[in-house]
Amino acid sequence: MPFDALRTSDGGARQGGADLWCTYAAVRTLTWLGEKPTDPEGTARFLLSAQNSDGGYAWQKGLASDVWATYYCTQALTDLGTGIPSLPELEQWLSTTRDASGGFAMTPGQRADVWATYYAARTHAEILGTDIPQRDELRNWLAGLQRADGGLGWYPGSTDSDVRACYYAATAWRAGFGDAPPPWDLPALVGWLNDRQAPAGGFVFHESARADDLWATFRAVRALAALGTSPGREADCADWIIARQSPGGSFTRWDDYPDADVWAAFSAVGALQTLGHGPRDSSAVVTFLKECELPQGGFTYRAVSSAGDSLATSALLLAESATGVEEPSDGPARWLHAAHLPYEDGVMYMPGRGAEVRCTLWAVSALATADQKPLDAERLVSWLRQLQNSDGGFGYWHGRASDMVATVSAVDILAGLDRGTDELDASSLRAFLDSCRAETGYRYSPGAAVTASTTAQGLRLLHRLNGPAGSSAEDTRTAANRLLSPYASRLGGYGATSRSVPDLVSTYQIVLTQQTLGIAVERPTLSRFLDRVRLTGGGYAWSPLGNRSGGPLAAALGTLLARDTPLPALNL
Question: pTM of the prediction?
Answer without folding.
Answer: 0.94
